[in-house]
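hey so i finaly got around to running the thing on DUF2264 domain-containing protein from Heminiphilus faecis. pasting the sequence first so u can double check i didnt mess up the copy paste, my clipboard has been acting weird all day
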Amino acid sequence: MTINLNSLLKVIALTAATVIAPMASGAKKTSVAPELKEAREVRALINKVNNQWQSTHKPEMTPFWHNAAYHTGNMEAYHLTGNPDWLDYSTKWAEHNQWKGAKGNDRSKWKYNYGETPDHVLFGDWQICFQTYADLYNILPDDRRIRRAREVMEYEMSTPNNDYWWWADGLYMVMPVMTKLHKITGNKKYLDKLYDYVIVSDSLMYDTDTGLYFRDGRYVYPAHKSANGKKDFWARGDGWVFAGLAKVLKDLPAEYRHRQFFADKYKKMADAVVATQQPEGYWSRSMMDEEHAPGYETSGTAFFTYGLLWGINNGYLNDAKYLDAAKKGWNYLSKTAVQKDGSVGYVQPIGDRAIPGQVIDRSSVADFGVGAFLLAACEYVRYLEKNMNTDRAYWAGLAWQMAEPVLRNMSEGNLKKNMLVEVSPNWDGRNKGVTYMETFGRLMAGIAPWLSLPDDDTEEGAKRRQLREWALKSYANAVDPENPDYLLWRGHGQALVDAAYVAESFLRAYDALWMPLDDVTKHRYFEEFTQLRRVDPPYTNWVLFSSTIESFLAKAGAEYDEYRINSAIRKVEEWYTGDGWYADGPEFAFDYYSSYVFHPMYLETLQAMKDAKASTRIHYHNYYDRALKRTQKYSIVLERLISPEGTFPVFGRSIPYRMATMQPLALMAWYEKLPHGLTNGQVRGALTAVMHRMFDDKENFNESGFLTIGFSGRQPNIADWYTNNGSLYMTSLAFLPLGLPATHPFWTDAELPWTSKKAWSGQPFPKDHHWGDGAKIRDLW
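ok and heres what it spat out for the 3d tokens, dont ask me to read them lol
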């Protein structure tokens, strides 16, 4: 049974079909969805505006705030479009400034009050440039790109001062620097100081009643009032803060202890922003007093529009009022602010407040206004195109193709009856009933994140909801001894392996797939998982199957075997060979078991123990942080193994697991932990290319719709003695990024060349190097 791209996309039946239908040979032109038409118009406007700015302004400008704010927008436009000229523009700017802000070198003279001298190194207006330097570092890692940023910020954090952000603008200038550098370095001090500094900022200028910020201490009500005696909130000042909070939330780790503080602040501010919008869609310079400084203003409006759209796209702002406000803001930006020549007008000049009588017109342009416009426009494109991404449609179509026959049948108790089973020519004679447990457990471990996404009214959402309903019934049937599809939990050792994948699926979708199960089913899982302690795992990756099951039990609040978890951790540590590779036991084997088992199950064991708040000799947090770095390094290796043509080396046992080879790379994308040097666009492009090479027009599915034994098509000769076609559902483990929403940059950023493509076409590409393992971690007692 062959699988074809166009038929696959019809299966998923996404709105994207209006985009790709003309790709079929001889296809007639189809009507264009309104969202797609508007998205094309917005993309054209982005091109017009940014090209107009760059064609009339050389990149060799200072790194001071107004230029640097433009580059934050330019980098967003680059990620969305992949335009290499725009990347080159920001790179030239950074090179011109020697990857520095203020250039003073005598630390004893460094200041953070307002100033434009080389000694104002600690003043945030000279630090916003570090945002773009960090972005450029993530594309092409080179220590000199962030050396000065780290020197300045780490010196600043070493001082006892905590009032560095004494004006509202500074929260946009520097808050995202802290999160970006934390993401690169892993230094938790960036997050600690981020919170400390914001608390002081709040004490200086935050209005708890509205959730808005006065520009600085000079403008706090009632000492300062607007023309009509109201609180005077300056639109651009609050726009800086609102956009900065969106950027911070984008990069904050999910487990960050103060994340909710920032989320709550952002959402409260969003309500105040919506409440103060003018009917024409803009925000007046004095947000609560239009008469104070009447008329259009673009920079604050653009920042607010960006911040609202980001929250809508990322699930923070779900009420219709936010979308209405964002669309009104965009209507003003696109119809009024942008001029015929592509310039962005009605930008209030550099200042610190809403100034009565100040004239602002269509010729009032500024670099930071263009940057703010680009941020808003890019986020609007992400909103418009969320259901029209052809790569996502292809991935979702493949996932459906694999999952539908399994879950539809199993939910009805018919999997064993209807699955067309294939086994290795060298089959060892074990009970073929293991096939069904392998099929179900491995499939669910791969698609669990996808099924965790909230329901929506898209075609993909409908299919996802259907799969989830089938999956929940299948979970119940799997442990019901009276059901025909009760799995083969007992009587053999192989059950330990695939029970671990079932447990892994619960860990990956705890709220969506474990919590809805009824108490009887949960009790049955506890019983089946516990009885597997009868299996003595071989001295190999199997120790992680035990630890994954036991750590899930710990997270779920059941009795667990601490020894099976901690002994597995110690063994895995002994078997780490360096640079991301694990040996499968005492001897190193050149295969992909670091992909299939070691990296994901080791991380998930440690995370589950953290979630369980378990107190044992093992410091799970420290072990997790180190294991994560190893997985990031291994992800770099995997990405480099993908050829320009979308192939990767075929070696080692279990190669029919197909895409499971790429699981750690997919895992890092889903975790939003891709290492520097790997961008969303290049990783999605690389993985999609591999999927096309592996699945398109190949006999990967048999006549009953189940996977065939092979690597790229039907190739039964490569099967190992333990391989059945249920084993092959491991390939779903590369589909983890489907758990990211359709508006996530993984899906919306432009496809970019991956490392081998760059290397073999003469483009710059990141150097590779050894990654050290850090200090030894000792037991807690």
